[in-house]
Amino acid sequence: MTAHRLPGLLIWLMAGAHALAASPLVDLSRADTGLHGARVPANVLLNLSLSHAAAGAAYEGDYVATHVYAGYFDARMCYSYPYRSSGGVNLPDWRVSTAYFSASKVADARHGCGGDSFSGNFLNWAGASLLDIVRYALTGGDRVIDEVRKTVLQRAYLPDGHNGVDFYAHPDYFPRKLLRAGVREATPFLVEQLSIISCRNRLLFGDGAQPPGGSCEDPGKAGALGVFLARVQVCDGTDGPVRAELCMAYGKHYKPVGALQREGQRVRVGVFGHASGVAAYGGVLWAPLAYAGAQRWSAPDFLPQDNLDAEWNLATGVYAGSKGVIAAINAPGRSDEASQGAYAAAAPQAELLYESLRYLQGRQASTVAGSASWSDPRQASCQRQVVLTLGDAGAAPDRYVPGHVPAPDSGERARGADAYATPPFDVTAWTRAVGALESDGAQGNPQPLPALAALDRLNYGQHGASYYAAGLAYWSHRQALRAGGLPVEHYAGNLSAMASRPDVPALPTPLLLAAKYGGFADENGDGNPFRASTGDAYLEWSVDGRWPGHYLPGNDPPALIALLRAAVRQAGRATVAASIAGPSLMALASGAEQAYWFRSQINLADGVMRVARDAFQLGADGGVLAGKAVWRLDGEAVPKPAVHTLDAQGALMPLAWDRLDTQQRSAFDPDGDGQGPARLAYLLGDRAHEVGQPGGFLRRRAAGLAAAPHGNLVYVGTPGLGLPGLDYLQHRQRAQQRRKMLYLATGDGLLRGVDAGSGSEQFAYLPQALLAKAALAGGTAVDAGSLLDGAAASAEVLVAGRWKTVLAAGMGAAAQGVFALDISDPARFAEEGALWEFTDRDDAMMGNIRAPPGFARLNMGGKQGKPVYRDMLVVASGYNNTQDDGKDRSPTSPAAAIFLLALDKPRGTPWLLGSNYFRLKLPLRDDEGASNAHALAPPALVVGNDGALAYLYAADLQGNIWRIDMATGPPWKDDVGRKLVFVARDAQGRRQSVTQQLKVAYAPGGGYLLLFGTGKLVEAADTWPAALLPQSFYAVHDDLNEQAPTRGRDDLAARTVGVAAGADSLAIDGGEVRHTGAGARHGWYLDFVATEKTGERSVHGAVLAAGRVAFNTVLPGRDACARPATRLYVLDVLSGFAADAVGTVRAGEQTGKLLDGLARAPPQLLELGRQLGAAGATGRAEGRKQFAVVQPGMPGVAAVKAASGALPAKRLGWREVANWRELHEAAKK
Q1: I need a surface site. Which of 102, 560, 1044, 1068 has the fewest CB within 10 A?
Q2: DSSP 1137-1200
Q3: What are the phi and psi torsion angles at 353 (to 5°)?
Q4: pLDDT tens digits for 1061-1113?
Q5: pLDDT at position 1091
């Protein structure tokens, strides 16, 4: 039951049985929940510096039938156009209501139409303008007819000479095009060569053998074959269902949409431009920053509200009015009926950029710009500001910017520095700084251009434009525009049909440098894009080593579409910090194992994860001191690792085109466009088909691995010594010879196996359940998200009589299920690696699994008193298992469950309940109605003396703590062996969610102590003020008495928290806890303080060591711009008190160290050493362990030192063995 992404932060199921319909689902689509500023949507300001050049032809050169030309027409379709009779002659229709092209049939493989209609691919080449490409990407196109059942898009209106240049057959802006061959395949015309001229809103077809001539009003022979309106019907019943990159369903109908509609709930958008037809300073605010979609988020709490100013109807997709962002983007060139085709007479880009930055500063326009009144657009101090500038580089002089000192006799006006900023902003200084970095190789630039040294004095283009746009972008990217705010992130692109002319300067354009210096990821804070911490001179600013990552290339329409979409999408997904800590794993040297520290950094904006192995040391304070990098994994491995998946019979096979069956091939080529092999190659790491490459059409990827924010890292080295038997020892000896491996999930759907020593990728596995989504993840219109972001685990298990090393992982949010692999010998993975997958297709009660599965040995009963054991995977049903997603994939009644999945299931055999898997159902208990989502946390496994699973403990989002007795063996009936041990409630009686695995310790007097914290931080709603409820950490004693009542907090001893002024730790106090005898309590609890302000909660599982429990809490904060924090606690398991530096536990000691940043994983314990006291008369001594509790991924010293209580050491007991010598000698034989 894969969760679909629908509008809103909670997805409600509205069909089926009443109980099921009332159960809300958990939104798993976001990875930024709780991060700094994540609640505040970004401001995206579009600077459209549109002169007439923006309406120039999108495509140059001859038509190539096999090349795909993007535009309003579907390249895969053929189109017809209506004719009307006039004077006995059939002419193309010009009536507004009916004059448009419409899809009539599917084109052939070469985009041909057989001579009876027009090729959509050809029409895009012939008539598309650059402005159409921008509108296609951002709004879905300019709608000239916008009805519920009909949408017609119109090509940008071209200048006709009444307001400047005439585009009719203009050699620079929109030249006369010739189709020299294949006319009958691309059109219904019979000429040998076809002439195509674009003017106004028209397409003129004539015989290409005739000389050019005429005008738009009187084309003569140039229009002899017809004058057509450049309009096309899109997203109708034929087009809509198959054109997913453009069309979105609204009920039974479809509408063309762009990035603004798709991302409208995550960003605010505004538009700056120039006054139409007027040569003037600066720019005009065409549309103030606002929410365009159905919802809006208002300060200070940023809760979702209905947007009364939504720019389209949520039910139909029809535009709601003629004002707003979409209208501002679509209107240029046709906003004034009296002067259609009029664009800005001058487009001074640097001046426009400066005025837009003043707007973001909350100031009014410069006096020279006019008297318009602007409202402050900033809603919160942590609101990210993104500026996207498009225009014709060099279109106009643009030097009237603060700090400009005119050259002698230039006739330009001087302008003093802008004192609003500190220090005052001087555009010449900042532009000169860009020039220094560009021209001087000594600063790390691998390709310096000495000609750019005096950049502040250089002109670009024939109109004398400056490079001040680059200086403005660099200044606003390096420092905040105003106190307490954030720097600006810039994107920029050139829109000019003249960009590829040989007489255009070869130097980089001002907008290219603006994208480079206003958009680089300054992760080390040095202000230099060429000096990254890794030493890679391209890492911070370029994806491919050629172009800035934030540059939008106007001369490559498919890339422009893809990168405009990506810019808006990334604005909605980025974090205040450029990157966040991803999964991490560390250990000190032990036995045959070397010390290791594997860590990762994630950039949520571009969905990239970089993994490294670093050397490290532990400081005296327990903090981790990073050393040199051992290796770094960037996803650019050569040769590429072999990727495998399952075939229809469940056998492992290489993921290769010639090995895919028909159904699998159709997943890569769903529309029959013949690009299936290219999509497969993309998934396998080939970048040849990414946008920006010749013929590229797939999403461009940044260097690195696809991020899996909720995944983990699994190290598999030499198996431990804890299991008995000669066959296990032999297995261990074999395993000592294999590669030591690191396993990690990546967002492209692959589970990757990496040599832990060298960092080289050995193989990868794509779960069959994710193949269809992974096949289409390269699309540019819709964000596929992280496809494999579940955590993994490994164990040594006995499978069909043989010891194996097995790895299992949940599939995360993209699919509901788990998979298991045999990783006993990485070198033989291709032959032995597949075990199975288990999804909601096998059992409808399976949900989305993010936590690592568990492994357990089950007592299956047996005959004549001899038990039979079976090793199984143990996994909870997870999130959203009540999702209604199709026949046979939805439960008939809501319930949570724990699954026991046999690891010895023969390959290719079906899953059979009660045979090779078992389902342990748990009832849903929620006395607060159906307002809460239901989900089961990963179960804790408790083994008995025989090593088999004795008990399962599981918690859920309603705070229920269940025990399931497993010792009796199958069939484990649903109504037998379930015990509700405890219900977590706060002091007001409200249930407290538990999302973590319980930890289990032995309790005095028998039974177990269950240790866990409460709280949930999964979806955006978890950070809203209403969700900042009291949360706690519990130690609950389960005495295994079936007759005992369900316990609550009143049965436990309270621990109180004291907050000292100025201290970053907390004092833990309270009375003595007795676990047995008179006055015994059933455990203890600790309530976190001031949760209504801090939102403190426990969402990651605890760690047990030497009588201590270590856990962290996260504090996202009530204020939307609060800096999130983490506390690190170390408490005594039995008493709930903290210990002093030498390990003495007592009331009043401090713990709960406050750390900057949000922990994304449990803490890790590293043993620092042991202290041993003197032995007594019996040889017994006491010792203490010293260990560091480390919180990976946090800045500074994110660790605390801790000491255990007194532990027995040396001689632990004394027993006389009378025949010791005899036994000793016998052992030698």
Answers
A1: 1044
A2: --B-TTS-B-TT-EE-EEEES---S--EEEEEEEEE----TTSEEEEEEEEEEE-TT-SS--EE
A3: -65, -40
A4: 667 899 999 999 999 888 899 999 999 999 999 999 999 999 999 899 999 99
A5: 96
Mean pLDDT of 929-943: 84
Residue 238 sits in the same domain as residue 262: no
User: Is the same domain home to 319 and 440?
Assistant: yes
For 1120, the token pair is 């939307």
Which of 573, 604, 632 is the endpoint of a domain? Answer: 573
Please give the pLDDT value at position 168: 96
pLDDT (mean) for 435-454: 94
pLDDT classification of 1141: cutoffs 50, 70, 90: confident
Tell me: the pLDDT tens digits for 170-223? 999 999 999 999 999 999 999 999 999 999 999 999 999 999 999 999 999 999
Please indicate, yes or no, whether residues 318 and 378 belong to a single structural domain of this protein: yes
Which residue blocks in 392-459 are alpha helix, DSSP H?
Answer: 427-439
384/573 Cα distance (integer angstroms): 11
CA dist 755 and 825 (Å) reads 12
With a cut of 80, say whether residue 1060 has pLDDT above it.
no
Residue 33 scores a pLDDT above 70: yes
Burial classification of residue 121, based on how many CB atoms lie within 10 Å of its CB (0-12 exposed, 13-18 middle, 19 or more buried): buried
Whether 323 maps to a domain, the answer reads yes
Q: Which of 211, 242, 273 is the last residue of a domain?
A: 242
Instruction: Give the domain range for residue 380.
Output: 42-48+258-573
228 and 291 together in one domain: no
Measured CA distances, 408 to 350, 351, 396, 1019 (Å) = 21, 21, 19, 60
* 437, 440, 444, 446 alpha-carbon torsion, rounded to 10°: 110
Is the pLDDT at 652 greater than 90? The verdict is yes
373 and 262 in one domain? Answer: yes
Residues 380 and 415 in one domain: yes
Assess whether 351 and 464 both reside in one domain: yes
Task: In whole angstroms, give the CA distance from residue 365 to residue 355.
Answer: 6
C-alpha to C-alpha distances, 240 to 100, 108, 231, 958, nearest whole angstrom:
17, 19, 17, 43
784: helix, coil or strand?
Answer: coil
Strands 303-306 and 385-391: unpaired
H or E stretch at 566: helix 557-573
pLDDT level of residue 640 (50, 70, 90 thresholds) = confident
Tell me how far the alpha carbon of residue 279 is from its chain's centroid: 43
Residue 826 binned pLDDT confidence (cut-offs 50, 70, 90) = very high
Spatial distance between the Cα atoms of 107 and 1177, rounded to a whole number of angstroms: 95
The two structure tokens encoding residue 735: 């395993």
Residue 385 is assigned to a structural domain of this protein: yes
Domain membership of residue 690 (yes or no) is no
Left (φ > 0), alpha (ψ -120 to 50) or beta: where does 350 sit? alpha
| 784 within a domain of the structure (yes/no) | no
- Same structural domain, 222 and 276: no
| CA 139, chain centre distance (Å) | 23
pTM: 0.92
